[in-house]
């Protein structure tokens, strides 16, 4: 039933049904140009989505290049690496502001926005890892030295920009993994919460500590932390500004994996890379619509969620990848998916 049709149903039920239909239609609109809803949810054709592109990162090898000098150029504060060979399809976003503990400056937020804008429409990207290029630090949140120089009228708009960029990362169509090898406080933890999966070293420290500064989390923390670990515990952590180590974070469900830190200081990144490699062989279209079905379905009731799943499943049926998967199964070989 399309949104226009159910709008005529009287009472609260009609309102709910109309809302469900709009949610499912919006879900399909994010899948691909020209999508249609399946079965009784059939509606009008969805116009193609147009993504802005204004930035293209250079392709680099898989070996990380670290730099810790206080003289790092602003263009090096975010390093975007497209991995090659057996890791082709994995992109690493490396934050590199050692002199400021990887805190969010105006420049870094601008660079993150441009990078995400380019990645979200790149069909060759299969998984994105967010990490730090600085030992012992993931991201310390907002750059307070820069913040203290702002007029009160500037603070709100800047926090809105941080929130918008973190939302863009949360809405990336491919799996995202936060590799937390060090301190992740305030906005740094909010950045990690926007990723689909979080892994951390046991020595890492994580917390939403904004109440210590007489403010509250402003990059989605009050919304994503309760969804990750439950409302009561999230309130406790935010009210107390408590900082957890990797083991404690794993115990409360904040992260999926905890590793003992290695000599190189990149145990979480290596685990994230292992996970990304596990994702690579799967069908690219299936991965995207699976993420969309889960994300959208978790925000609605079960009936609407099942309708979203139906809509998402329908998008995989006409793909060449689905036929390739069946053929590979029949021929007892590994499938060669192309994202088509």
Automatic annotation (TrEMBL):
Entry-linked InterPro entries: ClpP/crotonase-like_dom_sf, Enoyl-CoA_hyd/isom_CS, Enoyl-CoA_hydra/iso, Enoyl-CoA_hydra_C
GO cellular component, one term: mitochondrion
Signal sequence coordinates: none
UniProt keyword list: Acetylation, Lyase, Mitochondrion, Transit peptide
One BP annotation, GO: fatty acid beta-oxidation
Cellular compartment(s): Mitochondrion
Entries under Gene3D superfamilies matching the protein: 2-enoyl-CoA Hydratase, Chain A, domain 1, Lyase 2-enoyl-coa Hydratase, Chain A, domain 2
SUPFAM superfamilies: ClpP/crotonase
PROSITE patterns tied to this protein: ENOYL_COA_HYDRATASE
A GO molecular function held by the record: RNA binding
CDD domains: crotonase-like
Record-stated family: Belongs to the enoyl-CoA hydratase/isomerase family.
PANTHER family in UniProt: ENOYL-COA HYDRATASE-RELATED, METHYLGLUTACONYL-COA HYDRATASE, MITOCHONDRIAL
Name of the protein described by the UniProt record: Methylglutaconyl-CoA hydratase, mitochondrial
Protein species of origin: Leptonychotes weddellii (Weddell seal)
Gene name of the record: AUH
């Amino acid at each position: 039933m399309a949104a226009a049709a159910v709008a005529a149903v009287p009472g609260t039920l009609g309102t709910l049904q109309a809302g469900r239909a709009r949610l499912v239609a919006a879900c399909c609109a994010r899948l691909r140009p020209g999508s249609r809803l399946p079965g009784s949810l059939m509606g009008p054709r969805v116009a193609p989505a147009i993504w802005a592109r204004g930035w293209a990162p250079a392709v680099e090898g898989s070996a990380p290049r670290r730099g810790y000098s206080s003289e790092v150029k602003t263009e090096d504060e975010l390093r975007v690496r497209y991995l090659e060979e057996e890791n082709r399809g994995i992109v690493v976003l490396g934050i590199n502001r050692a002199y400021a503990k990887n805190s969010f400056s105006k420049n870094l937020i601008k660079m993150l926005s441009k990078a995400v804008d380019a990645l979200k429409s790149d069909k060759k990207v299969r998984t994105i890892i967010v990490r730090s290029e600085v030992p012992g630090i993931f991201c310390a949140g907002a750059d307070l030295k820069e913040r203290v120089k702002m007029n009160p009228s500037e603070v709100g708009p800047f926090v809105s920009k941080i929130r918008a960029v973190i939302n863009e990362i949360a809405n990336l169509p491919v799996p995202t993994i936060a590799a937390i090898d060090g301190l992740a406080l305030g906005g740094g933890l909010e950045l990690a919460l926007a990723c689909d999966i979080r892994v951390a070293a046991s020595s890492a420290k994580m917390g939403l500590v904004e109440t210590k500064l007489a403010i509250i989390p402003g990059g989605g923390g009050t919304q994503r932390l309760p969804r990750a670990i439950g409302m009561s515990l999230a309130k406790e952590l935010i009210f107390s500004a408590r900082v957890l180590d990797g083991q404690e974070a794993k115990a409360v469900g904040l992260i999926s994996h905890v590793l003992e830190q290695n000599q190189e200081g990149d145990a979480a990144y290596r685990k994230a890379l292992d996970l990304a490699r596990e994702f690579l062989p799967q069908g690219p279209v299936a991965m995207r619509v699976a993420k969309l079905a889960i994300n959208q379905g978790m925000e609605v009731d079960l009936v609407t969620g099942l309708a979203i799943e139906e809509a998402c499943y329908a998008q995989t049926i006409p793909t060449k990848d689905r036929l390739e998967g069946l053929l590979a199964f029949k021929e007892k070989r590994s499938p060669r998916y192309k994202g088509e």
